[in-house]
Predict the structure.
Amino acid sequence: MTRRLETIAELRSWRQGLPAGPGFVPTLGGLHAGHQSLIRRSLDENEHTVVSLFLNPTQFDRADDLAAYPAVLADDLAVLERLGVAAVFVPSQDALYPDGFAYRVVETRLARELEGAHRPGHFEGVLSVVLKLFELVRPRRAYFGEKDWQQLELIRGMVEAFFLPVEIVPCATVRDPDGLALSSRNRRLTPTAREQAAELYRILGRAGSADQAREALGAAGFAVDYVVDRDQRRLAAVVLDGVRLIDNIPLKARPPGGPENPE
Ligand code: PAF
């Protein structure tokens, strides 16, 4: 049975009873198969796994985006129960932000580019909440999806910068059979847009350069926030029918002229 921990005191007392740091999967809730793959990996690699469900308001730059996030606590708890997760941490906003977000983690380089340039303050919210959660959970390993590549890089950087005793485990992006990366935002797509959305992955893999990908995405009906090639990856953010989608693929090991990039 999954222990439901709602207060910091409850989490600390559960954590104290563990012989070693648990595996940790922080989430915003709205669990989908992508989250489940992180949780399964943690269950495989750790004696105890704790998942947090916390819709972190400080990482949303737009109130409508926050309001549209699926609030499905009962479903999420049922998923965790079914997977056999030891504990779930469901803190309140006041518990995690006793200072009202006066103190925060700021990264001054990468956090200002790409997602950070389009979503001001986003990574301050992400890094701050992840640091708080790491402090409270004191995990041995923490699991993050490669779909949020920039987030993963920034969390790795924070762990290094602050000497945090946690291993960050990157997990491959989980995709629908047509290639669309799983995201809680996918639920907001109309059936037509959902079909069209798979072109994002196909175009990123097919295009010979970031410029060509940008052009092809525009022609396919996406509004492009950015497409860039860096660190052997192609990263992109687009808006389709009012829904913002991000994705990235490795550029190494591309079959010459091949349509897909193996991940
Ligand atoms: O990737 C997410 O779901 C969130 O950004 C995270 C890491 C749980 C922080 O709120």
About this structure: The chain has two domains: 3-171, 184-253.
